[in-house]
Amino acid sequence: MVFQVEITPIAEAQIDLAYRWYRERNPELADRWFRGLMNAIATLQEKPQRCALSVEHEIFPEEVRQLLYGKAKNVYRVLFTIRGATVYALYVRHSAQAPLTLDDIEDLEGDV
Question: b vs e for 80-89, b when ≥16 Cβ sit within 10 Å of the residue's Cβ?
Answer without folding.
Answer: bbbeeeebbb
